[in-house]
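Entry for manganese (II) ion complex. Fields follow.
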Amino acid sequence: MSSTLEALNRWVDDVARLTRPDTIHWCDGSDAENRMLTDRMLERGDLLPLNPQTHPGCHLHRSHPSDVARVEHLTLVCTREREDAGPNNHWMAPDEAHAKIDALFDGCMQGRTLYVVPYCMGPIDSPLSRCGVEITDSPYVVANMRLMTRMGAAALARIEREGRFVKGLHSTGDLDPERRFIMHFPEELTIKSIGSGYGGNALLGKKCHALRIASWQAREEGWLAEHMLIVGIENPQGERHYVAAAFPSACGKTNLAMLIPPEGYRRDGWKVWTIGDDICWMTPGADGRLWAINPEAGFFGVAPGTSKSTNPNALASIQRDTIFTNVAVTADGQPWWEGLPGQPATDWQGRPYDPANGPAAHPNSRFTVSARQAPSWSPEAEAAQGVPISAIVFGGRRPSLIPLVFEAHDWAHGVLIGAAMGSETTAAATGAVGVLRRDSMAMKPFCGYNYGDYFAHWLSFDRPGAQLPKIFHVNWFRKGADGRFLWPGYGDNLRVLEWILGRCTGRSEASDTPIGYVPRPGDLNLEGLDLSRSALAELLEVDVAGWLPEIEAIGEYLASFGARTPPRLEAERRRILEALAAAAPRPARAAAG
Ligand code: OXD
Ligand code: MN
């Protein structure tokens, strides 16, 4: 046996001694294994059948009602030096953290099976991919990991070849929120998670490995692990460009990744290709460009709001072989959520539906499905070298001030724009919804180290020979005085992407403003869109007086990371502040008496 497999076996033995499972099962990822696990979960009620005629191979999982989202206050980064985790993370000293969580793991798998889940994040043959092994006592987690990662025998073979893997230990424990922790030990490439079965807390390949641990590895090795979708846009000439876009959780990444072009664009031959909807790993290639892979193999998408009009590609993907979590069910056993036609019979907790109990589907209810089932899925998602990125887009929910789209003057300005990102909070994490918070690069919950160091790492890509993507900021969520969204969003976002790619190829015009390049009304293709002139003017306005306090607030935010904030970022902020101050209308002087 290779020394890697020996080390893996030793770790599995150690964990089994601590957690005391009844049996140990090494997952091979086969269909037969999946059938066996599904049958076992159906027997135990962990999965419920759905209508096999309308939704073949689909099942429903109902989680514990207190276990429906990520728990940021219980998610810790345990570095030897507190400063290395930074003020953006909750921290605990590694020794204390191990002792605390190991006490909770003690005997927690009695009466259960321990599953060993080898997985690969990224195409199995890509040099950009990284492997891990998750130990879990949850067959639901195994079934999800099989959809979300390249899981099983091929991953184990790569681990054996490579000799390095991230260790993840997970148990649902007793689901008591008082005994729930998601701990990361980046210096040990280790994750320990207990007390939750929710995706972001329990599918350790996803947020824990592919973002928190990978962001740490990426800094050491010179690449980027980001909370970004990757979408390919093909114009009528057949040119394809790839865009990586960061938005906070539940802000429409899946919708943008699977966008259906507006009718006129479709007629002209525009096509949209999905590479990924949540995570992007980018590495500088020999040609100086950034090349990206989606480390995931599936989508763990937010169900509510997914409909024929908002995301027909997603809806088409989830008609078969899909795991639904915390959705409602119709009388004839079909999954249901707000935004779909028809009526729910039972709500996400299995109660007869009663509007007095709130929404029928939990606002963070999810579908898990293989990415290959999306009609827009691109075979380039399997390309070992990844895809070259032409544009990076940042965005958040900003009801006011932030224009529909603007372009950074250069890379350092773009890094500032990403660092300054703000968004209203959503149901993807526990806590208040609709509160504005800074969420740099949409990585606030996911950056595995000090944000100050992370900004410096981003800046470091600007070096001789680099052919970096242009950086943009978008805001689909701008509201008018009547409280309604000014921009239709969804498929019409392609109009903005066309302008963005035009900026990358020299085909689009813009006006130069203190905050960056902004399209003038005539620079966007709005053919076939019913948008009033005043709404467009508002969407593209640079409100100098409103931006001044925003740039001041960004300064306070950057200062919160202390000496680790790169001075280059503060210099960039001052440059913008001065440009805004110069553009601001001067108060009228009192007439001399
Ligand atoms: C997700 C999240 O599940 O960001 O992707 O919460
Ligand atoms: Mn996400």
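NOTE: The pocket of oxalic acid (ligand 1) is lined by residues 70, 199-200, 249, 278, 300, 428 (CB under 6 Å).
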